[in-house]
Amino acid sequence: MMDWIKYPDLDYPAQLPKGYKSLVGRMIFVEEKRDGSNIAIWFDDYNEDVVISSRRQKIAHPKLQEQVKATEDYWKIRKFVIENPNTIVYAESIPKGYTPTKIEPPHDKPELVVFDILILGGFLNPIDLSSICRKY
Asked: Could you tell me the CA-to-CA distances from 134 to 28, 73, 120, 125 in Å, in that order?
């Protein structure tokens, strides 16, 4: 059984106990920053339903939920979490008319950009994450 887990706040490398030296010898993955509303989509076993959470709230504001459900990808993610109830999918919800990078034109439709998936036991590695996103 999985319950909502807020996406962890990440420190800047300079704020790590050993600073940038903490990263020496470690595999690092760099992802493009997409700026929108941080959301989580997961299956609530107790209520037997899919839940959309925001960055800080277990149940996202109804307007944010409406924005997320207006995307094509929400329904694919919904199917995935129903089939895999011990997962939480984290994504950025980018509304219609918004520019997520400040250098690209505003989007003509709402969009979800998945950036992490938590499975009981830990986060998926980028290769498995990419594979699941392509499948769904």
From this structure: 22, 11, 21, 14
93 vs 39: CA distance, rounded Å: 7
Residue by residue, pLDDT tens for the chain (136 residues) are: 567 777 777 667 777 788 778 778 877 777 777 778 999 999 998 878 999 999 889 999 999 999 999 999 999 999 999 999 999 999 999 988 888 777 888 888 999 999 999 998 799 988 899 999 999 8
d(CA 44, CA 13): 34
CA distance 76 to 68: 12
Question: Residue 123 has which token pair?
Answer: 């986060």
Q: Please, where are the H alpha helices in 1-136?
A: 62-69, 72-83, 126-135
CA–CA gap between residue 25 and residue 33 (Å, rounded) = 24
